[in-house]
Amino acid sequence: MAKNGGLESLASEGRDSGFQEAPTSDAPTRYIARRAASCRRGRRESVVKRVVRGVALVGFACCTFSAAVVTSAASTNVSSLADQYVALSLDFDPTGAYFYGLESPSHSRLVDRSPAALRAFEHKEDALLDQLNRIPRESIAATDKSTAALMRESIEAEQQIRVCKMELWAVSHFIGWQMLFPDLADLQPVGNPAHRTDALKRWGSMPKYLDVEIANLRDGLRQGYSAPQPLVKRVIQQLDGMLAAPVDKSPFISPADRDEDAAFKKQFRTLIEQKINPAIKKYRDFLANEYLAKARDTLAVSALPDGPKCYQAFLRMFTTLNRTPQEVYDLGERTVAENAAVVAELGSKLYGTRDIPAIVQKNNSAPENKFKSAEESLAYSQELLQVALEKTRPLFVKLPDQAVILEVMPAYQDESGMSANYMLSADKSKPGRYLFPMKHWQSDTRGVSEVTLVHETVPGHHLQIALAFERAQPTKISKLVSNSAYIEGWARYAERLSDEVGIYRTDFARISRRIWPARGMVVDPGIHAFGWSREKAVEYLKSTGRFDATTAEETVDRIATMPGQLTSYDTGGLEFFALRKESEEALGSAFDIKQFHRVALEEGAVPLQELREHVRAWIASQRSGTAAAR
DSSP readout, 350-398? Predict the structure, then answer.
């Protein structure tokens, strides 16, 4: 049965047996969809890579801003409304601009996450959507379609997610403030007197920011909202790692390190020692001594007030579709079964057995699939990146101008359960970074490392996100707004593409990329909608062979902190596969893979329905052009 304009039926028809989940990632976007994408385009989440603009788990909120940001309802220009939305968003959170190549309206502020500030932002955001909805859709020019789709989906998804009241339980080891702020410190402008003053003011306000966080969490406890206890423990571990560092090695020291002024260096070090670290210690002690014992012992977001509505909203936010948890779960199970059938065929040829657990065991225990050291693991992925760049180049009109590198993940992140992820630099002179974890090298395999490498770099996240930033005329909103289904769906598509063109070095990778995909569509709603216990979820993950006991536990906690995000990979991946299949069948010998990729990528990370409409319009234009040439 067709859902959401036929998206589900199309995806079902185009399902492929293989895409491998890399357990991080959004990018735009390491935030929850884009604040899960919205603040760090294509990062961790992919984004985190990471967009609940305004009430994000990462600790974003609004600050006061002028009513002049929102113009009168007489405006009927889509581009103008979108620019107003960007201005509103950046005035609300000026720090976000650094992560996606936009001009920040202030270098001296952190965001205000007080309830009054949040509600004020929501009111102004709603007014802009009302103006957009007054414009007849049929009157919107083709050049503005993606702009309207991005703005409408972003605000509508955020309106729906408000039921979750995320600011009241915003404790996350994956997308919390303690993950964002060190990167923000790296991007803080310095180098002249005005910038130095701004830097001292912004980071001097961190105690106030954390006091608001504590107040929100206390209010959440009073109203029946809290984060799961395992997540709180992981955050405490991260904070302990931060506080253990000497001032000169603090995650916040970058502004002092990058400035030549001796007096500023001293002032900033003093600020860390006398304000930032004590504020972190106060927040850490609040979590450990007051919050942890009262935090919920359940993983499922459905345990919160209005929990089922909240989970439905998360699914919408991450996938841009309105599928129910049951629809997601059922599609996931069907896809898992199809993947298993292909794995059985591969296992029969390689290992003489069709038994899935036996195939997984043989694949993961093969000595030639293991690493002898963490250094060997890193070098293996670095070498494969060069192969990926070479073999990807013929499939695209162009590769990004911006380079991509592997960088060892900071220890305080690696030790707390963070997994591999990609981070774009909005400064095109600096490379995108694949943050490579070293903690689990003994259990990591070559096959999984190969699949994760292409997912995070080329032809996956780096290629897609960097090309979006290099568009000839990127709109401001296309830099600001994204979604996990597109970003992670493209990376999933990249995993199969890498198999097609011979990037993978081993048969281990060809099995690994098929054994995990779509299981996120099962385990995520299993936990949040269907009452799965932690133990059941861990065993389900371990059965794939993709996870040992430790990484399975880490992945379950990731699902707990970002409900719905793990469903986005294959929701988007199935759509990219389906659209390519439709294009190949419609165009026959005229199908050009380079042009298909150009069209699929050229609008940026749009909602899936807009992607489908755009590709179908291209198919129609190609067919009419072919017919005219006959």
Answer: HHS---HHHHHHHHHH-GGGS-SSHHHHHHHHHHHHHHHHHHHGGGSS-
